[in-house]
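Single Protein Entry

Contents — chain, fold
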Amino acid sequence: MTQYQQPYDSGFKFLLEGSAAEMLPHFLPGSEFIEERNIEVLKPPMRVDRVYLVLYRRQPHILHLELESGPDSEMTHRLLVYHVLLFEKYRLPVISIIVYPFRTSIVESPLQEMSGQEALLTFNFRTLQLWTLDARRYVEEHVLSMYALLPTMQGADASLLLQAIDEMIEQLSGTNLARQLLWMGTFLRRTEIVSPQDKLRVEERLNMFDTLLEQDPYIQELKNRVAIEAEARGEARGEARGEARGEARGEVKGLQIAVIEIVRRRFPALLDIAQQRVERVNKLDALSQFVGQISTVPDEATAVWLISTLAA
């Protein structure tokens, strides 16, 4: 798993929590959710994303979902290992699906182990490219649990996404609304489906909910984690601040450049939104603190929240 996989993986897992019954039939048509199963099947560092007991073709199956946000030629072999372990544990048919949210090269089924012309093993799995799904369909059918993923689907534009946001505001509240908006923004920034102009319109709408995100316990947990890690890495933070100040001779412009370069190096998918935010900030203390924080955040999801807190 690359460093860029984790935020989307976390978002995917969160979206499925509490909404699996509604979402799973869209990943495996004809399936019916029964219950989530323990994903601690493998020894560290190997972990499956999500495993469910479902009713499919009138009999119980194990449904295994893996999210892949980029190309990975080794994915089929890991998937086979997961498949075998899940089958050994549950002794039920296992359906393995790789979900791709963004346009990328994908692995092809089946995986075969060959001995000359003899197929010693044939492993069939499925792939689902979210960019092949019709975003309009989910809005027309009011499938709110899928709305955070709309930016990854064909037909997603500012008009449709703003309509979806309005519906979420009407139907959801509190923590659920805050997190849905957070992950919609995360997928929006990476997708190539939505035009830059439409992204900007939707971002402006999402930015109106910064206070709601700030108050959410989940976001507070991320904030606390950032603070703890920043404290543990105080020396590194000080070096980052010193480097930025030295380069800019204590001027705001220098710190802005430092922030943009750190984001470019660590979280390139967030570069555009970081540039928009940083250009509005003219306080030396705020920029200096942000340099240390963005240098040490553990993943892109936390960086998304951190960038969203920047204020002039």
